[in-house]
Amino acid sequence: MMKIGTHEFDLHHKTYLMGILNITPDSFSDGGKWLTTDAAVHHVGEMIRDGADVIDIGGESTRPGHTQIAEEEEISRILPVLTKIKETYDIPVSVDTYKSRVAKAAIDVGADLINDIWGLKYDADMAKVIAQAGVFCCLMHNRTDMRYGNFLRDMTADLKETVQIAQKAGIRNDRILLDPGIGFAKTYENNLEAIRNLDQLHALGYPLLLGTSRKSVIGTALDLPVTERVEGTLVTTVFAVLARCAFVRVHDVKENARAVRMAEEILYQRM
Predict the structure, then answer these.
(1) Cα-atom radius of gyration of the chain, to the nearest Å?
(2) CB of 36 within 8 A of CB of 79?
(3) Tens of pLDDT along 8-31?
(4) Residues 39, 45, 51, 55: what is their CA dihedral angle, to the nearest 10 degrees?
(5) How far, in Å, CA of 44 to CA of 30, rounded?
């Protein structure tokens, strides 16, 4: 068992739901929907009722071709919402950022987890900020190019480098989650291969998070727009449960919670 915030998580025998809260005008599927603090906090309440175990706040879109924003603007988007969530609900909150100043500001007002899409490789101070605070981190696979020799081998090697950065900075091993980074520096075929081989990543020794919700790999596979990718997402969520992933990061919490529950019932027959 691992304690994130005030909640206990069995990260080796259950799959938990991380609900996505994008407080951005330009995110690929829900940009502009939760821009005010009241709207954002209300949506968090909906996600909690639908089965979310953690809330992941993003203040900058990381969709392909996104425009980077200043740290001050990202902080100004995140902090009021994060503060209000912590005041209103008893749920662990993750902040999706790759900038150490944003991470520190969020941790100072109660963030329980930092979700870094660059796996500590963008900002040299990020690992130190996380280590000093003692918070959890989700470290994603990413790179600046897609020149792979052997994709699975190279992705694994990249994640090992990320873990080494974390360990050198003093981040505790029991505070690390790993994410294969579906949709980041990967072709359509790479994304499918990563999902198909999730179980191989357990050899690294860390709990896994899968984030595929509404992403282009689903749109490409099914030839569907972003508004019609729920069913495709549910299939990847079931793959995550079968591969014993600790978390799935999703927009549509209710539907994914039901898929997780059904898949776990088949696996474990818990009733």
Answers:
(1) 17
(2) no
(3) 999 888 999 999 999 987 544 555
(4) 60
(5) 14
The whole-number pLDDT of residue 11 equals 86
Which sequence positions are flagged as catalytic?
215, 249
In this prediction, residue 13 carries a pLDDT of 87
DSSP the chain: -EEETTEEE-TTT--EEEEEEE--S--TTTTTSS-SHHHHHHHHHHHHHHT-SEEEEESS--STTPPP--HHHHHHHHHHHHHHHHHH----EEEE-S-HHHHHHHHHTT--EEEETTTT-S-TTHHHHHHHHT-EEEEE---S----SSHHHHHHHHHHHHHHHHHHHT--GGGEEEE--TTSS--HHHHHHHHHTGGGGGGG-S-BEE--TT-HHHHHHHT--GGG-HHHHHHHHHHHHHTT-SEEEES-HHHHHHHHHHHHHHHH---
**pLDDT for the residue numbered 36:** 86
Residue from 29, 97, 226, 241 nearest 105 by CA:
97
Distance from the Cα of residue 1 to its chain's centroid: 20
Tokens representing 33?
A: 């929907």
> With contact defined as beta carbons under 8 Å apart, do 139 and 116 qualify?
yes
CA atoms within 13 A on the CB side of 49: 6
**pLDDT for the residue 67:** 72
| Regions of the chain with pLDDT less than 70 | 26-34, 63-66, 270-271
Both structure tokens of 68: 């980077």
pTM greater than the 0.85 cutoff: yes
